[in-house]
Amino acid sequence: xxxxxxxxxxxxxxxxxxxxxxxxxxxxxxxxxxxxxxxxxxxxxxxxxxxxxxxxxxxxxxxxxxxxxxxxxxxxxxxxxxxxxxxxxxxxxxxxxxxxxxxxxxxxxxxxxxxxxxxxxxxxxxxxxxxxxxxxxxxxxxxxxxxxxxxxxxxxxxxxxxxxxxxxxxxxxxxxxxxxxxxxxxxxxxxxxxxxxxxxxxxxxxxxxxxxxxxxxxxxxxxxxxxxxxxxxxxxxxxxxxxxxxxxxxxxxxxxxxxxxxxxxxxxxxxxxxxxxxxxxxxxxxxxxxxxxxxxxxxxxxxxxxxxxxxxxxxxxxxxxxxxxxxxxxxxxxxxxxxxxxxxxxxxxxxxxxxxxxxxxxxxxxxxxxxxxxxxxxxxxxxxxxxxxxxx
Length: 392
Hints:
- There is one protein chain.
- This protein has helices spanning 24-39, 55-65, 74-78, 95-104, 119-134, 149-159, 191-194, 198-214, 336-350, 366-384; strands spanning 15-20, 45-51, 69-71, 85-88, 108-112, 139-142, 166-174, 218-226, 231-234, 237-240, 246-253, 258-264, 273-280, 283-288, 294-299, 310-313, 390-391.
- It is of the alpha/beta class.
- The strands form three sheets. The chain has a nine-stranded mixed sheet with strand order 16-15-14-13-7-12-11-8-17. Strands 3-2-1-4-5-6 form a six-stranded parallel sheet, sandwiched between helices. Strands 9-10 form a two-stranded antiparallel ribbon.
- Helix 1 crosses helix 9 (336-350), helix 4 (95-104) runs parallel beside helix 5 (119-134) and helix 5 (119-134) runs antiparallel to helix 10.
């Protein structure tokens, strides 16, 4: 879909990128923008400016991460004529204001997940995205695990019918960085800045993968949240933790499958363990992000004496995205998915498609983020109502 008033990609210079945020996600996105042109045939990009509130810290980040300039005022940056893409890697409470302003300024936007801290903010972002998409702009949401080659292969196997009808889906995302009760407060532990805790931070990934892989959407949920360490040391003394440390949910999917979700930042020994299992009438799949190049597939149509999970090493040139990377068996890492994501965004911009409900362009978009925010809100509502089923 191409709009007559679509902002044309510049032909006389690279696409200018502004990155808002320079910490963990800012580093990952910087790596992607640095490597995407070396890995894929995509429009040229220039890392024009990185933005942060701390002048010294963002200046040091610009030098370390390879940005041409640094700035402390994102409003001035999005008004610049040499900025075409605004990449938002801030805490969630800042997403809506920055994304809406950038879209209204005519920029393409990539926003880290989850889309917003609540449904009202997400709805406002979707309205801004609709208007921008009609002008040919891309409003992209950064669920990066959709770009992990093994998970893209899993989706293809499901779409090809290799699992038959999906009956059950299970996703657990476990980390342990908050196990220590002496770990200090951060913005991720305050509802006003993070929206929710483990549920929104990593639970959003788990739910997105269940829906993306099965092709089914959540119709109803039952949920429970837990805050296992209610107080932590802050800069000015003890503070209340106002978000969840762990969450559990059962998803009733609109295609008849049942999804199980478990997420925690208190799971001792689990570093970044996103495990996904799908069980269908003709087969099954298993994946673990701590072994990101492996997909395990069981073909239930084979003779029973030959059935068993087969390890697929997803490093062949025929596998998704692998044409740009290394020879067979030379494994990829966590950061490569961000480069794959940058590639898909640049191709959507180059080809003049916005993904505005027509099945083309970049997926997920802001509308997908709003739909997922409603699932998160329903889980919170279910927990508040002692586990009552909440229908979406």
